[in-house]
């Protein structure tokens, strides 16, 4: 078994006639923290959403642990997967959204318990124990019975991370997890993510938090106009960028 | 340096002469109407009082309530199915749902009622091979009434449920999909519970409308309140009195339902502008779930 978690080979994505991803090649290794930087509209979210098939790749190959996402390759033909198979693939990939997307009709605890119970078939008692442990881990053991509407943005996002972790994913996708937060709440979410990184979770993080990328990322990728402009370690890409586009972007966000 | 507060304004208020004039006109008009009806020799008021509590009337009320309840339950279930079909990615299901709405909302419910009741005229028997029965045995007046009202209601509920589903943030569906929920589970566990706040208040209105619509089944003699009142009245030459009896009971029932409805509406309107989640909302959904499933009772 190779140590590659995600492999993108010449990945293209078009919405109608608009090509948003124009050939993405990259590899995310097991246990790696992989940060995607880039200006608005460069296709970062779209790429992330392709990884769990919220968007379908229109050309190229995208695989997780060697398994194509959303398609099955038979001979040299691709077959679309059934919804059930796609759901099974998504179970192992956690996703955290910019706008949290917690389920507002469920308490924090229920948000974290529901998917393991209803999707993985875990018993209620077990799901509860696990959810309490996860909420404790993100520092919310005192808010388990609160509804999302009663929590701050930072707290909601931490519940959302716990909710994703409850499915025991092998890969976590973060799409600008702190962009919708008031500045003073950004730190608490980044701290949870740093813990997660330290524990060896494979993470792909779209972020504008350059400090976080520099501190935590193993690989930083700069995207612009649907292509990877530059990739490497944080010290290469952030501190010593080679391309003008990277330089001008960094000068704006730093 | 302090400035003395200015003297409070004591203006002469506008006189609403118009209001007083209209009130006077209304009082006179209503009074005249009540007088002419109340003292009308053609109406035997003592008969109205006597017949208000006849067993036939209570039987009719029972049928009316049963028709309302059953056809609403079936209509709601049908409406949910049709709404989900309408919003699905499957073009066949979408077309079926659209066609259903086209037909059932495009024809009068009275006509639908009569068609279901008279199905035996064109299909004398229903079934396959030896497993067939006479249509007229199968479709009683009550059965035809239920069928017609439920199928018709399903069409109207479809639009209500569809509106509710569309009111839920698409991010909710995405989050559920990202966790590995199937389409059906996303709908049942995530979208529909949240759509409830939009679906429930207009559904209350539908119940009230349905209660009154059931009177149409008198056309096929389904023994509801109005049919019973009519039959009794025509037997005893007290038709008009019996109409008044029916009115009294319909008004009593709709008054109760309207009160319940406005409470329900208030409950669901709470916090509808703010964050899409309040504790109150959660509790309401919690209660709905408790009513639905015994396992939820322990919460
Ligand atoms: N569903 C869609 N239909 C059509 N165009 C889309 C759709 N989703 C995204 N796009 C377009 O694709 C481009 C890339 O969008 P994407 O959201 O991936 O950018 P991004 O890098 O995440 O930007 P941001 O930093 O603003 O989130 C944008 O021009 C956007 O308008
Ligand atoms: Mg984005």
From TrEMBL, chain B:
Pfam families: BPD_transp_1. The keyword Cell membrane applies. Its main location: membrane. One of its GO terms (cellular component) is ATP-binding cassette (ABC) transporter complex. GO terms for biological process: amino acid transport. Keywords: Amino-acid transport, Cell membrane, Membrane, Transmembrane, Transmembrane helix, Transport. Belongs to the binding-protein-dependent transport system permease family. This is Amino acid ABC transporter permease. It comes from Nocardioides jejuensis.
């Amino acid at each position: 078994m190779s140590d590659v978690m995600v492999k993108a080979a010449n990945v293209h994505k078009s919405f109608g006639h608009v090509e948003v991803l124009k050939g993405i090649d990259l590899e995310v290794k097991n246990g790696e923290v992989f940060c995607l930087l880039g200006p608005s509209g460069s296709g970062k979210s779209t790429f992330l959403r392709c990884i769990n098939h919220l968007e379908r790749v229109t050309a190229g190959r995208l695989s997780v642990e060697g398994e194509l996402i959303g398609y099955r390759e038979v001979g040299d033909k691709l077959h679309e997967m059934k919804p059930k198979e796609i759901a099974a693939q998504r179970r192992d990939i956690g996703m955290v959204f910019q706008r949290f997307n917690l389920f507002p009709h469920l308490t924090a605890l229920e948000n974290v318990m529901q998917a393991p119970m209803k999707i993985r078939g875990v018993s209620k008692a077990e799901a509860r124990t696990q959810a309490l442990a996860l909420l404790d881990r993100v520092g919310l053991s005192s808010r388990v019975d609160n509804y999302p509407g009663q929590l701050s943005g930072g707290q909601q996002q931490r519940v959302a991370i716990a909710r994703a972790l409850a499915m025991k994913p092998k890969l976590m996708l973060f799409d600008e997890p702190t962009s919708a937060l008031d500045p003073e709440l950004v730190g608490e979410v980044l701290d949870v993510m740093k813990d997660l990184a330290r524990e060896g979770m494979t993470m792909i993080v779209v972020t504008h938090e350059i400090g976080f990328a520099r501190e935590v990322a193993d690989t930083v990728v700069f995207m612009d106009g649907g292509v990877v402009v530059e990739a490497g370690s944080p010290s290469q890409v952030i501190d010593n960028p080679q391309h003008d586009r990277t330089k001008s972007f960094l000068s704006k966000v730093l | 340096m302090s400035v003395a507060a200015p003297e409070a304004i004591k203006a002469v208020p506008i006189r609403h002469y118009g209001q007083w004039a209209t009130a006077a006109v209304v009082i006179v008009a209503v009074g005249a109407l009540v007088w002419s009806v109340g003292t009308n020799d053609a109406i035997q008021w003592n008969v109205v009082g006597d017949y208000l509590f006849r067993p036939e009337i209570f039987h009719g009320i029972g049928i009316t309530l049963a028709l309302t309840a059953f056809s609403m339950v079936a209509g709601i279930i049908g409406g949910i199915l049709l709404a989900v079909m309408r919003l699905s990615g499957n073009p066949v299901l979408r077309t079926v749902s659209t066609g259903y709405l086209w037909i059932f909302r495009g024809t009068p419910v009275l006509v639908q009622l009569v068609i279901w009741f008279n199905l035996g005229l064109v299909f004398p028997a229903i079934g396959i091979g030896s497993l067939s029965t006479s249509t007229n045995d199968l479709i009683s007046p009550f059965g035809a009434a239920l069928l017609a009202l439920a199928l018709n209601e399903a069409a109207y509920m479809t639009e209500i449920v569809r509106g509710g589903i569309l009111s839920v943030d698409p991010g909710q569906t995405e989050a559920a999909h990202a966790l590995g929920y199937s389409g059906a589970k996303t709908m049942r566990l995530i979208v529909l519970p949240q759509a409830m706040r939009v679906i429930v208040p207009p559904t209350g209105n539908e119940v009230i409308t349905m209660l009154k619509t059931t009177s149409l089944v008198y056309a096929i003699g389904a023994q509801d309140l109005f049919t019973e009142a009519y039959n009794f009245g025509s037997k005893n030459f007290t038709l008009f009195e019996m109409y008044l009896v029916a009115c009294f009971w319909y008004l009593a029932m709709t008054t109760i339902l309207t009160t319940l409805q406005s409470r329900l509406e208030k409950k669901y309107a709470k916090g509808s502008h703010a964050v899409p989640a309040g504790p109150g909302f959660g509790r309401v959904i919690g209660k709905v779930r408790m009513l639905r499933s015994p396992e939820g009772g322990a919460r």
